[in-house]
Amino acid sequence: MGAGIAEVLAKSGLDVIVREINDEASAAGKARIEKSLSKAVEKGKLDEKARDEALGRLRFTTNIADLADRQLVIEAASENEEIKKSIFAELDEVVTDPEAILASNTSSMPIIRFAQSTQRPERVLGVHFFNPAPVQPLVEIVSSVLTAEDVRDTVTSFVSDVLGKNPVQADDRPGFIVNALLIPYLCSAIRMLESGFATKEDIDAGMVGGCAHPMGPIKLTDLVGLDTCLYAAQSMYEETGDPATKPPILLSRMVDAGLLGVKSGRGFYEY
Ligand code: 3HC
């Protein structure tokens, strides 16, 4: 998601710094963005000049202190609350502009917990993109109980006017709008598969051919990432106790096995 979000920002004309955890992750993120932009050129959606300009607006670092002068930071670390909280605490230390906005792309975790890791909780909110970020038009704007109205309004205008995406307002509740509906659906599909009710191909064909979804739920879990689905389900189940969000055992076992979907080359399907 981080690479996709960085691509969207750079294509919108913004100066972007991508902070990764190590040089390998930085190189992989950069290669992913280059490939995606070059594919857009091949398809005639972008000219070479625009691609090179977008790439020129991106800088990569492993040092969080390089984010000191940023006006907006979007955290897109993996769905681990402790990691995200420590990133917010570090950002609070290094980002110097008191007006800067600190956002999280979390799928389902409470924004208020990240806000409370900083001394500026009113300037923290959720800005949730959808996979693949360069394609999906929606962005959920998630205000915590402490997010300032002007911060919410500034980010909402930024998402629509600068990024050209469609913002919707969501409450800081488990799964916000989309994942509150999507995660139970994906978990049900995986339960259907693990109980031997139907094959993955037929489950996917059912939702594509029967309900006109662009892809079926098993393939979509592979696209989103099995780890992301698992952590989103776990955090929603922990807070709500809703059995529809209880992570299926098959999902946990596959994540333990490193079968994370498209990003690892194998999930329910092979890539
Ligand atoms: N980056 C940039 N562009 C991409 C892309 C990527 N990673 N993947 C696909 N595209 C573009 C293609 O270039 C193509 O553009 P074109 O129509 O202008 O030529 C267009 O998207 C369609 O792609 P394809 O023709 O290759 O394939 P499909 O028609 O099968 O579309 C899809 C692929 C866009 C992924 C489509 O299947 C889809 O929309 N699937 C559903 C995705 C979805 O539901 N996402 C939400 C997940 S939930 C989430 O992310 C939240 C999280 O918190 C869990």
TrEMBL record:
InterPro entries: 3-OHacyl-CoA_DH, 3-OHacyl-CoA_DH_NAD-bd, 3HC_DH_C, 6-PGluconate_DH-like_C_sf, 6PGD_dom2, NAD(P)-bd_dom_sf. It comes from the Bacteria. Residues 175-271 form the 3-hydroxyacyl-CoA dehydrogenase C-terminal domain. Keywords: Oxidoreductase. Residues 1-172 form the 3-hydroxyacyl-CoA dehydrogenase NAD binding domain. Coiled coil: none annotated. Pathway: Lipid metabolism; butanoate metabolism. NCBIfam families: PRK07819.1 (NF005875). Belongs to the 3-hydroxyacyl-CoA dehydrogenase family. PANTHER family: 3-HYDROXYACYL-COA DEHYDROGENASE FAMILY PROTEIN (PTHR48075), 3-HYDROXYBUTYRYL-COA DEHYDROGENASE (PTHR48075:SF9). This is 3-hydroxybutyryl-CoA dehydrogenase.
